[in-house]
Amino acid sequence: MTAGMALFKQQTVEDFYVIGEELGSGQFAIVKRCWEKSTGLEFAAKFIKKRQSRSSRRGVRREEIEREVNILQQTQHANIVTFHDVYENLTDVVLVLELVSGGELFDFLAQKESLSEEEATQFIKQILEGVHYLHSRKIAHFDLKPENIMLLDKNVPLPRIKLIDFGLAHKIEAGAEFKNIFGTPEFVAPEIVNYEPLGLEADMWSIGVITYILLSGASPFLGETKQDTLANISAMNYEFDEEFFCRTSELAKSFIRQLLERDKMKRLTIQDALDHPWIKPLNPCQALVRRLSVINLENFRRQYARRRWKMSIRIVSLCNHLTRMMRKGQEQQQQQQQDQRSCDSDNEEETRKTRLQTRKRSNTS
Known about the structure:
Layout: E1 17-25, E2 29-36, E3 42-49, H1 62-74, E4 83-88, E5 92-98, H2 105-110, H3 117-136, E6 139-140, E7 149-151, E8 161-163, E9 170-171, H4 190-193, H5 201-216, H6 226-234, H7 242-245, H8 250-259, H9 270-275, H10 284-292, H11 297-364
Antiparallel strand pairs: 1-2, 2-3, 3-5, 4-5, 6-9, 7-8
């Protein structure tokens, strides 16, 4: 364990926390509500399934979990989920985190009756401030998407944004080249698609995609398949469709264009984004434009529901594919066992015949 690393407590988490209902789940993690017995305070317990062997594909490698904990340990910001404790048993690592119970930002926006760009930028600004904190510490999130942008409490005048899920986050080391293919296809930067060196700039691209969806409900690069989506990103194949962006200000489009910039050296940095006139108007005229530009929420709801439906269809087809693979594997295993049994019985038969022949020869000699 590296210096400054959180101690993975080997005690049973249930001895210290009452574990409640499930709040959400991912590929190898389940998040449950919990209460600390000593204080009665509410938290979220994230149960991460550990990979049991080098050859296995199921579960998360321990060093990856250590990296997530290490990064969470270093972060203390109003717009980032707070780390509280960590426990470990034979099968899982359990992260005890701040309870973020206001749901996803986009689900909250879809329920609103009206939304101006000025109100939208109040949420985008909070996302930027959380990312600014990370980037100032050379931490890239690498998985910024609507599902990881939550509200602490939605029943207040201006809900507070919380960035969650640091499973892919990395500290960008100076002079060390870092390449990887990961993240959600819809939100990944061209440099991830093209397997080029990665840095903090990849998060800025994701913010561009998130802002595009926030203003329209539509997703700029989402294709029918994962391959289509990645091809659209590589080809920079997106536009501001008049149907979705007829009421969008040029300031907002300029903000998105400067984030969805293929050349990462020309892409807005986090400080540039915070200083952009759409986020921080330079004069009363720009502030007024932002106030008068409204988001077509009917369009947003329709497009966002369509996007969610597409994603759920993909998840269902992925589950079906995995089920078929597992079934096929089980069938192959059963077939191998049958072959082995028939092979064994053939061997037994052969041995029996040999014994009989030997017996006959010894009787006639």
